[in-house]
Amino acid sequence: MPIQYLTADAVRAAEHATGDLLANGTLMRRAAAGVARVVLGELTGTGGCYGRAVGLVIGAGNNGGDALYAGAILARRGVRCSAVLLAPDTTHSGGLAAFRGAGGRITGALPDTVDLVIDAVVGIGGTGPLRPAAAAVFAGVTVPIVAVDLPSGIDADTGVVHDRSVRAAITVTFGAYRNLHLLAAPRCGRIVLVDIGMAPTDTPDGLFSLTDAEVAARWPVPGPADDKYTQGVVGIVAGSQRYPGAAILASGAAVSATSGMTRFVGSAAEAVVSHYPEVVAVDDLADAGKVQAWAVGPGMGTGDRALDILRTVLAGDLPVLVDADGLTVIARDPDLVRGRTAPTLLTPHAGEFARLSGAAVGADRPAAVRALAADLGVTVLLKGRITLVATPAGRVYGNDAGSSWAATAGAGDVLTGIAGSLLAAGLEPEIAGACAARVHALAALRASGGAPIGASALLAAVRPVIGNLRTAHGGADGHITTG
Ligand SMILES: NC(=O)C1=CN([C@@H]2O[C@H](COP(=O)(O)OP(=O)(O)OC[C@H]3O[C@@H](n4cnc5c(N)ncnc54)[C@H](OP(=O)(O)O)[C@@H]3O)[C@@H](O)[C@H]2O)[C@@H](O)CC1
Ligand SMILES: [K+]
């Protein structure tokens, strides 16, 4: 099952659906126990709990209540707990009584020496940046911060990171992930999901991510009856004689991502074959031969020839991926793709997205990518540190790349080749996009090892990453016995 991320409203609905558990405070006690468990684990791992000092920053709502109950548990375990109350008149009363009763102290500011700080300013009820008083409390904090539900100052639904916001080492959340845990993953640190006994319902048009196990399970693998044609032949249209790089990278990625066959169309045919002799490369579309999907656009130019190729390919009924220069052509004439019934995947970066939609992506990335997908009636993959793939029906798959090393020239061409080959293998466009984004990100991480990389290094890591994913998730191939 994909991991689901909920909006604040959906979280509240799921909490309310628990009935008594919400009303009698059981959910909050469970949430607090989860926070305390994580904090105790951190303290234990860094020298022990007894006598250690923890500071709590408590806001006006239930998020503060979670932390105060957690503080009570910590205090009873010998942790010295001090809480700063940002809204003393509206502090959660039950939590405050429990905290005080267990020996917790209320202070005007965080003590100079604390081992860890708990951020309980706001949870899903927060809006906007940290207010100045809250920001002032965090200003000098250098120790790890454990965020309750979310790092305060980050929008729960859009993941917008306001200029005054918390950067957490660990985020402890409850019952289900919230949108920001994907959309602002780099600010959340390690995310711990605590089971509090609420069961969110599946929202088809929600936000999801694929687990590595799912990516491994969906990756096309040739079966005993397969030959080079049956696995899906991808046709790459990219690059030019003058600029062969995009052609080579996209074709190489297609060769690496799936077994079977890659065709190439373009004036860089000779250069492509010199790098990848297994590619069947021709200059003209008319000579291309049969494919099961097209991946069109990187470095192909934006002139009449590009328009002709796109017109021909998009008029057919095969799956088509369009990237880079191809997107510039489509931005001038969106009717080329609008209403297309065969699977169609557009893979813009932010600049290309703005050209296609007529406006910058803006703060609410899921909303923007959903709107463009719905408007054009095709699947849209918006590149970025958090790549988002939206279907016209509004379902979004996100992938946190875990690093930004893939922000390098030519990396997009590699993504085109991977996703194009997955389309040819028959994956739905949103799954092809999500799986390609995941493997692309893992390849960047593997290739980098902490140092800058170019797209060639990323491409070279694609095959080992797929192999590792499959091995790690039960995709081992048969073995040969001898003797
Ligand atoms: N329901 C349950 O039993 C369970 C709930 N759970 C927990 O409850 C959390 C949701 O609680 P909630 O709804 O009380 O909202 P919450 O996020 O604590 O605070 C909102 C208040 O803060 C204020 N405020 C707003 N923006 C601000 C800002 N930028 N900077 C500073 N202050 C700001 C604003 O108050 P104002 O000052 O405007 O009066 C607003 O009313 C949820 O995330 C989870 O942790 C779990 O225990 C599971 C069971
Ligand atoms: K918080």
Automatic annotation (TrEMBL):
E.C. designation(s): 4.2.1.136
Binding, AMP: K383, G384, R385, I386, T387, G412
Cofactor: K(+); Mg(2+)
Record-annotated YjeF N-terminal domain positions: 11-204
Sites where the protein binds (6S)-NADPHX: A246, G299, H349, D413
Keyword entries, A-Z: ATP-binding, Isomerase, Lyase, Metal-binding, Multifunctional enzyme, NAD, NADP, Nucleotide-binding, Potassium
Chemical reaction(s) catalysed: (6S)-NADPHX + ADP = AMP + phosphate + NADPH + H(+); (6R)-NADPHX = (6S)-NADPHX; (6S)-NADHX + ADP = AMP + phosphate + NADH + H(+); (6R)-NADHX = (6S)-NADHX
Cofactor note: Binds 1 potassium ion per subunit.
Function summary: Catalyzes the dehydration of the S-form of NAD(P)HX at the expense of ADP, which is converted to AMP. Together with NAD(P)HX epimerase, which catalyzes the epimerization of the S- and R-forms, the enzyme allows the repair of both epimers of NAD(P)HX, a damaged form of NAD(P)H that is a result of enzymatic or heat-dependent hydration. Bifunctional enzyme that catalyzes the epimerization of the S- and R-forms of NAD(P)HX and the dehydration of the S-form of NAD(P)HX at the expense of ADP, which is converted to AMP. This allows the repair of both epimers of NAD(P)HX, a damaged form of NAD(P)H that is a result of enzymatic or heat-dependent hydration.
Summary of subunit composition and partner proteins: Homotetramer.
HAMAP family tied to this protein: NADHX_dehydratase
Protein name: ADP-dependent (S)-NAD(P)H-hydrate dehydratase
